[in-house]
Amino acid sequence: MNNKAIDLANSVWFKNNNQGEILYDQSWFTEHFLTEDSTLEIPLKASFIEQLLTLRTLLLEILSTGEISELQREQLDEYLSKAIYHPKISYKDGIMSSSWFCVSDYENQLLSEIAQDLIRLFSENKIEHVKTCSNDECQYYFIDHSKNKSKKFCSSKCNNLIKMRRYRAK
Ligand SMILES: [Zn+2]
Questions:
Q1: Rounded to an integer, what distance in angstroms lies between the CA atom of residue 21 and that of residue 97?
Q2: What is the pTM of this model?
Q3: Which residues of the chain have pLDDT under 50?
Q4: Ligand 1 mean position to 152 CA, how many Å?
């Protein structure tokens, strides 16, 4: 399962590598952040992209240190409070249950979900397993789910690339 906070943090790669701001790329954004039932308007509003960029700066600060300061906690709480949820009754196979339903607009819901995903890294003790890819040209953040926590690369793509380079260098 991907983590939206990590995805947003990693989007800075394109800017750092002089490829412009990827958040303006509709297809990239849709692929990473939108689900079938999301009602977010595409193209994104410039004001919303600004909010995402501000949140990304905060995420990068937190991921680089692995800690959340008092001030950062307040800032995250601010994002969390943007989405207003209430329980809603639903029926599935004739069984009644209630689940959380977001009543605010999807922009605020997404900002809140990204902040929730960051907090999940801490609450589920995954933050210590968040690493940066050992491919110097990549350096994407990823969660190491491997048993012995020995993963060095964000993807098999980076892994194979470096293996191939080492092999050629021999
Ligand atoms: Zn990588």
A1: 42
A2: 0.88
A3: none
A4: 9
